[in-house]
Structures are given as structure tokens and as C-alpha cells.
Design brief:
Shape: globular
Oligomer: single chain
Largest sheet: 14 strands, antiparallel, barrel
Number of domains: 1
Number of helices: 2
Helix content: under 10%
Strand content: over 45%
Strand order of the largest sheet: 1-2-5-6-7-8-9-10-11-12-13-14-15-16
CATH topology: Porin
Number of strands: 16
CATH superfamily: monomeric porin ompg
Length: about 375
């Protein structure tokens, strides 16, 4: 049954066509993918930084991301005066500030979380660069012992700049989203564009020892902000971006567990402008699928996990995840296109590294693996 579920997850969200979103490690900057995932981690607070170096046939681009998340309040147990619970971690007890694993005794009501996210893409020879500052708020609910769901909202302030005097390296496959930049002969044009954007998302999941399951979705660009960086085309608006994810955790044996994740990203940017200077119908759609393997009975505080992902089955991405105790998490991936000569898209090679720091994490990732609800 477990193997059948895995096959269904891999096939049910097969992509149809097109180009791609920019990061390989979508599971690291979760606020960029679904605002309701703000606060979905084990612990009280988390800081993360991600760097992506991207190289396509038309140029290179640097992408930077940093985020901070914080949980508010201890989760509440139905009918109890004490709003915390005691979780066993090694030889000592800790007070869990939020629901991080299933619990047989208490029925928590949930908690709040807030997050800040910064994203920037730029390169010295690229005419277009962008910066995005986001604030997210999420509410996480636990109406049953092993079921949970959440909702999140996000506001983003976007800042774009064009300076064609810097150079002519411009490739939509590796240049970040958010601004409409009319293609044409590179001259010496300059311009700036700022706008405010709003996004919403949600998720639902449940956990048992053999299987854990989670699905979620989000919608970005709710009010269609105008994004023509030269303000020449009023039709150039950000159409809705729709994202979705699914997670399936399976028990292989007493020593190893598997986490299978799917991510879907559909971007409405560059959709049907009638102005001659911007006439195009670019429709970005992409899909990630992968497996991660975790050692469930680590003998030390160092826990190494690994996985393999693909983007629309046209790239391959080895993925490594190293946990150093309860505080430090290092992640690395490399994305290599397959048969890239056959496609105009999917030509970029991406090398990414990430550092995550946790505060008041309750357990190491492999400890009590089959009772956890957080795999981000």
C-alpha cells in the first residue's frame, strides 16, 4: 500500500510544459512558496540563508535569500490549565513551545508564527535586478491529536531596477520573477519600478507512525500589481501565481525513513499583452519531485540525510542535508539539465548552498522520526 501511494504521488502531478521558477531548493525558502508554512519547523525560532549560482547558455545570475521565523505562545491542550507539554529529548526533558510531533495525551489548539523574508537577484553584467522584502503571518491549528492545518498571509514590497549600461546578459530562465522587462536591442536605458503585493496560502496534514501526509496550496499576486519597469504598458500586470505541494513520509524500517515531496509552480507573468513593445505570451509552469532518506536512529547528534530531485523530469538534482546537533543545518544541491539541447528552457545549471540556525529545537531530526509533523 505504501509503495502504491508513492507511485500515485509521483504521477498525479506530472507537469505539462514550459519554463521554471528560479530556486532548486524550494523546500528551504518556504515563505516564497507558501506563506502558511511560516513557522513550520521544530523549535521556537529559525534563521536561514540561501545562495544560488545559476549558469545558462545566455549568461549567469546570482540569487540571494534570507529569512527569519518566530513562533508565538505555547500550544494549548484542550481543557488543561497548563499550556505546555514535556517532550523527552535524550536524557532530559524540554518544554515544547509548539506542536512538533504527534502526542497521545494532549490535544493542542495551535499557535501563531511570523516571518520576514528577503530575496534578491542580480549580476554585474545583467541589466535587470530585483529585491523583495516580505512579511508573513500564519496560524497553525491542531484540532485532533495527529491532524493539523494552517493558514497564512503575506505582504511583499518589490523593488526592480534596469540599467542597460551594465551589460546585456539577460535570460528569463535564470533572471528572477516580478518585473516585465521589454526585450529588444540593449542600449543605455535605465528605469525603476516599485510595488506592493499580497499573497495567501494554506495546508492540511496528518501523521501516523507508518505514514504521514500533507498537502497545501497558495496564490500570489492577489491584486495584479503593474510591473512594466518602464511604465509604458498598463496591461503588464502580475497575473496570479499558483503553487501547490504534497508530502508523503513512509516508514521503510526501524533504521531508515523516506520523505517524498512534490512542488508545483504556475506563474502567470508575461501573459498576453497586446502592446507591440511587449507582445508575448510567456507562461511559466514547473514541477519538482524527489525523495529524501533519513536515518531514524542516529547514534550521535550529527545526522546526515540525502535525496534526489528532478525539475519537470528534465533535470536531476542531488541533495544533501547535514544536521549538526539541534542548532545548525547545512544544505547543498546541484541541478544538472538533461538533454538540454532539445529544449529552449531547462538549460540552467544551479549550485545552491543554505545555512539554517534553530533556537530551542526539541529533538534531533532523526529522533522519534515517525512521530514528527515538520519536515521543512
Amino acid at each position: 500500500m505504501s509503495k502504491l501511494l508513492l507511485v500515485i504521488f509521483l504521477l498525479a502531478t506530472f507537469p505539462s510544459f514550459a519554463q521554471n521558477a528560479r530556486f532548486s531548493q524550494l523546500g528551504t525558502p518556504t515563505q516564497m512558496f507558501n506563506p502558511s508554512l511560516t513557522g513550520r519547523f521544530d523549535g521556537k525560532a529559525r534563521f536561514g540563508a540561501l545562495y544560488s549560482y545559476q549558469d545558462s547558455r545566455l549568461g549567469t545570475m546570482n540569487h540571494y535569500n534570507a529569512f527569519l521565523e518566530y513562533k508565538f505562545g505555547r500550544y494549548r491542550s484542550s481543557g488543561d490549565e497548563d499550556y505546555s507539554y514535556v517532550a523527552r529529548s535524550g536524557d532530559k526533558s524540554v518544554i515544547a513551545e509548539a506542536k512538533d510531533k504527534i502526542n497521545d495525551d494532549l490535544r493542542p489548539a495551535g499557535y501563531w508564527a511570523a516571518g520576514l523574508n528577503y530575496y534578491e537577484y542580480k549580476h554585474g553584467d545583467a541589466p535587470l535586478s530585483g529585491r523583495f522584502i516580505s512579511a508573513s503571518f500564519a496560524r497553525h491549528f491542531y484540532p485532533r491529536r495527529n491532524k493539523y492545518w494552517g493558514l497564512g498571509v503575506q505582504g511583499t514590497y518589490a523593488m526592480g531596477e534596469v540599467d542597460e549600461r551594465r551589460g546585456n546578459q539577460y535570460d528569463r530562465e535564470i533572471t528572477g520573477d516580478g518585473f516585465a522587462y521589454p526585450q529588444g536591442p540593449i542600449t543605455d536605458r535605465t528605469g525603476e519600478k516599485n510595488y506592493v503585493d499580497f499573497n495567501v496560502g494554506g495546508y492540511y496534514g496528518m501523521v501516523t507512525e507508518p505514514v504521514a501526509f500533507e498537502i497545501g496550496g497558495a496564490m500570489y499576486h492577489l491584486f495584479y500589481p503593474k510591473v512594466d519597469i518602464f511604465d509604458r504598458d498598463d496591461e503588464k500586470q502580475l497575473r496570479h501565481r499558483v503553487t501547490a505541494h504534497s508530502m508523503l513520509r513512509l516508514k521503510l524500517n526501524d533504521r531508515w525513513g523516506i520523505v517524498q515531496k512534490n512542488y508545483y509552480w504556475q506563474e502567470g507573468l508575461y501573459l498576453r499583452s497586446t502592446q507591440a513593445i511587449n507582445k508575448d505570451s510567456m507562461h511559466i509552469q514547473d514541477f519538482w519531485a524527489g525523495l529524501e532518506f533519513y536515518k531514524t536512529q542516529p547514534e550521535s547528534n550529527v545526522n546526515f540525510s540525502f535525496g534526489l530531485y528532478t525539475r519537470s523530469f528534465r533535470t536531476v538534482m542531488p541533495y544533501m542535508n547535514l544536521y549538526l546537533g539541534k542548532v545548525v543545518n547545512l544544505r547543498a544541491s546541484y541541478e544538472q539539465p538533461l538533454n538540454f539541447g532539445k529544449y529552449n528552457a531547462y538549460t540552467a545549471k544551479r549550485a545552491e548552498v543554505a545555512l539554517l540556525l534553530y533556537h530551542k529545537r526539541n529533538t534531533n531530526p532523526g529522533t522519534e522520526f515517525y512521530r514528527k509533523v515538520n519536515f521543512w
